[in-house]
Amino acid sequence: MPCVELFSKVDALKEKYFKVWEDVCNIESPTKYKEGVDAVGQYFVRMAEEKGFKVEYFRHDVSGDVVCITMNPDAPLPPLAFSAHMDTVHPVGMFGTPAVHKDEEKIYGPGVADCKGGLVAAFMAMDVLQDAGFTKRPIMFLLQSDEEGSSMGSNKATISYMCEKAKDSIGFINLEGYTPDYITIARKGILSYRFDVTGQETHSSRCAVEGANAIIDAAHKMLELDKLKDDAGITCNCALVSGGTVVNTVAGHCSFSVNFRYATQEQQAWIENYVKELAATVHVPGCSCTVEKITMRASMEWTEKNENLANELNRIFEENGLPVLTPRQVKGGADAADTTVYGIPSVDSLGVCGGGGHSIREFAWLESLPKAAKRLVAIAMGM
After folding, report:
1. Are residues 150 and 292 in the same domain?
2. Which of 250, 266, 297 is the last residue of a domain?
3. Hey, how many other C-beta atoms are within 10 angstroms of the C-beta on 202?
C-alpha cells in the first residue's frame, strides 16, 4: 500500500491518539516514582494486548520496569526499533490537577514533548502498520523507565537490556522531541560529580594563624573547572554549593556538584582523569578532598553507521513527500548514545515538536503527533 494511503489512516486516528497523549501525560511519572512510571507502561501494555502484540518486561525493584512491545515477532527480516522514555522530571503535583490541558493548537503538561509524545507516536504508527497488513519485519517498541536519571537508578541495567534487545535491529529510532528540519545523529555525553572538601574549623578571629577553610579550597577548584568552556567539546557547569556552619567559624566542610558535557569517549577519559587530579590538588594547606561520580551518560559520537541511517531515512522521506532533515549534533544526552556505543545504527529527535522541556511551561504542537507517526510509518515501509 502506498504511504500516502497510510498517511490518510494516520490522520483519521488523530483524535483517538490526542486522547491517548493526554491520558498518559496525566499519569505523572517522575523518574524515582516507580508506581507512576509502571502505570504508564501498563497503559501501553493494555493497548498492545488488544492489538495482539507481544509484550515483554525487564523488571526492576528501584526503577520502573522497561516494557518491550513487538509487532510481527516472528517475521523473517531484522527488526526495526522504536524507543521513547516514560519518566519525567517534575515532582507529582507541580502542574496542578489535572496535570494536562489543551487548546486548539497545543498540549501542555509533564512529558508532553519529553518524551511521552514519542511514546504515542510510536504506538500510533504501529496501529496503522498493523491495520495495513505490514508483516515483513518485527517492529520493536522499547519503553524506557529511567532515562531522565541517566539510568543511574538501575545502575544502567535498563539501558543495557534495551541495547541487548535491539542489537540486531536495522536501526534504533529514538523519539525524543524534535526541532523542525533536523535529525540528531550525535549527542554530547554527561558526567556529574560531587566534590567534598574537608578543612579545619576554628574561631574566625584565628583564621590568619590556624584553621583551613574548606570553602576557599573548593572555590579554587571551581574556578579551575569553570575554565572548561569549549562549546564543541568539553564544558563544565558548577551547579550546587554548600559549606560552613556559622559566620564566625572557619568552614570545616564544603560540598559542590558539577556537570560536564563532552563529545567523544576520549574526552570522557580526560575528564575522569582530570577530576581525580583536581581532587588530589591541595589549594589550602590542611584541606583534603574526595570526589564521587553521581551521573554518567556516554556520548553519541558522529559515526558512519548513524550518518548512513540518517541518509537512508532522508531518502525515504523524500520519496514520500516528507521534509528532508539535516543531521546535527546536540548537547543534551539521551538513550541513543548508549545504543550507538553498542554498535547499533541510531538516530534521534524524531518524536513530537514542542518546547519548555524540563519546565512547568512544557508544551507540544498537537499536529506534530501525526507528523511524527507518518515519519515512522514511512521508515517501516521504506527500509
Report:
1. no
2. 297
3. 16
Q: Exposed, middle or buried: residue 56 (CB in 10 Å: 0-12, 13-18, 19+)? A: middle
Strand 172-174 relative to strand 189-198, pairing: unpaired
Residues contacting residue 243 through CB under 8 Å, at least 6 positions apart: 197, 214, 215, 218, 251, 253, 254, 255, 256
**pLDDT tens-place string over residues 311-370:** 999 999 999 999 999 999 999 899 999 999 999 999 999 999 999 999 999 999 999 999
| 229 and 307 together in one domain | no
User: Taking the mean position of all CA atoms in its chain, how far away is CA 271?
Assistant: 22
Which domain CATH number covers 142?
A: 3.40.630.10
The total number of structural domains that make up the chain: 2
Strand runs (DSSP E) across 86-216, as ranges?
101-102, 106-108, 139-144, 172-174, 182-187, 189-198
Single-letter amino acid code for the residue at 293: K
Q: Which residues are CB-contacts of 147 (< 8 A; sequence separation ≥ 6)?
A: 31, 85, 87, 115, 159, 334, 335
CA proximity to 254, closest of 284, 296, 276, 232: 284
Strands 80-85 and 172-174: parallel
Q: What is the extent of the structural domain holding 245? A: 189-297
Q: Point out the domain boundary residue: 297, 317, 342.
A: 297
Q: Which residues pair with 242 in a beta bridge?
A: 255
285-295: pLDDT as tens digits: 999 999 999 99
Give the span between the Cα atoms of 146 and 94, in whole angstroms: 19
Q: How far is CA 71 from CA 122, 125, 153, 339, in A?
A: 12, 11, 29, 21
